[in-house]
Specification:
Layout (H helix, E strand, L loop, with lengths): L34 E6 L4 E6 L12 E5 L1 E3 L3 E6 L5 E9 L5 E7 L8 E5 L5 E10 L5 E4 L6 H8 L17 H4 L7 E4 L11 H9 L3 E7 L22 E5 L1 H12 L4 E4 L1 H13 L7 E5 L14 E5 L6 H10 L1 H13 L10 E4 L1
Parallel strand pairs: 1-17, 3-12, 3-14, 4-11, 14-16
Antiparallel strand pairs: 1-2, 5-6, 5-8, 6-7, 7-10, 8-9, 9-10, 12-13, 13-15, 16-17
Helix pairs in contact: 6-7
């Protein structure tokens, strides 16, 4: 889709230079001590806070919308039984027959029927998996070879699926807690809704005591979240799909907020995706919804529901950066990112945050 001037939007417009030392490799000891860059669109202003001070900006009567998805330890490491070659896998889904859909990475070409020996987080061989079939999208159908639900099995042999820019994707034990929001409850994500990593129980209680409403939605974040847009123009990018859900309880809280003049503030781009998809599915009226969404928010998209957004700093050429610039506005968002770099904010999943209002 062209922008409002009729021109196709070049992906290169969403590139920027980031010093490598600004990519956070671990979170702060206290999550809410992260810095918070305030982007005030009404006053065309950028200001500096900390997450612990978010109550100075969010008003009584506003509603924070949280994504309660739970990251599963979806990364598997092992070796090919026949060759001894190193192998990595990423769990994507399980079917009704107990088989798994996985992405697999190894040297050479894997063959149908081949067996992989999977080691646990301590390097102990724990399970054998058989490659049943390769799918058209490049993923594999795999027979896990160990009894139990996928959640039970992954809890034994899986690792936190950190993005590559954090320690080359290599987890430490602390990541089991660090790469999870404190309100996570619905297992299914292979990446964390990272804006929510900053919120502590103390901070949420403080906001509630001050009259801020909390609504929860679910979006199981997929691996496509981290993939850069490789097409030259945004129109040519094939958007990944993710499962989302919004309940009647969340719909009621949001409707009450809007009726009383409060703002709907999404915590994370994933919450935005659920809210905007659900609203679009019902002719801009928010109703309970569940299903797959492949919504790609890019100019000249007009937001139907979301009035504020708390989010982390996103990778160059990513669909998430496109979304937040569409929401905040190009000029002020470019300025905000430049100022964040100048002020040495910490970037990406374990980094600092911004609040766009």
């Amino acid at each position: 889709m062209p922008n409002e001037t009729g021109q196709r939007i070049a992906t290169a417009d969403y590139d920027y230079e980031l010093p490598k030392e600004l990519i956070a490799q671990q979170p702060l000891a206290n999550r809410e001590d992260a810095r918070l860059l305030l982007v005030d669109r009404d006053h065309n202003m950028v200001d500096h806070y900390h997450v612990r001070d978010i109550g100075d900006v969010i008003r009584p009567g506003d509603c924070l919308v949280l994504n309660n998805t739970k990251v599963i330890p979806a990364k598997l490491v092992g070796k090919r039984k026949q060759t001894g070659g190193r192998w990595q896998g990423l769990f994507l889904a399980a079917d009704e027959n107990g088989n798994w859909k996985m992405l697999c990475k190894t040297r050479g070409k894997m063959k149908t029927g081949e067996t992989v020996i999977v080691t646990d987080r301590h390097g102990v061989d724990r399970a054998e998996m058989t490659m049943l079939a390769r799918l058209d999208d490049g993923a594999w159908v795999v027979k896990p070879g160990i009894e139990g639900s996928f959640e039970e099995v992954l809890s034994l042999i899986g690792r936190v699926p950190l993005p590559h820019y954090i320690r080359d994707g290599n987890m430490v034990d602390k990541d089991l807690a660090d790469y999870q929001t404190i309100y996570a409850k619905n297992p299914g994500a292979v990446a964390a809704p990272t804006a929510g990593l900053h919120l502590t129980r103390r901070l949420i209680k403080e906001l509630i005591d001050d009259g801020v409403r909390i609504a929860q939605v679910t979006l199981h974040v997929g691996i496509g979240t981290f993939r850069p847009v490789t097409a030259d123009h945004l129109d040519d990018h094939q958007m990944h799909s993710e499962y989302g859900e919004i309940t009647q309880k969340a719909v009621d809280i949001i409707a009450q907020t809007k009726a009383r003049g409060g703002r709907v503030i999404a915590v994370g781009t994933t919450s935005v995706r659920v809210l905007e998809t659900a609203a679009a599915a019902n002719e801009d009226e928010l109703k309970p919804w569940s299903g797959l969404t492949d919504l790609f928010i890019k100019p000249p998209y007009r937001f139907k529901l979301v009035q504020g957004l708390m989010t982390n700093f996103h990778l160059p050429r990513s669909t998430l950066l496109v979304m937040i610039r569409t929401f905040g506005g190009d000029e002020i968002m470019k300025r905000a990112y430049a100022e964040a770099i100048d002020e040495k904010y910490r970037f990406f999943s374990y980094g600092d945050a911004m609040l766009i209002v």
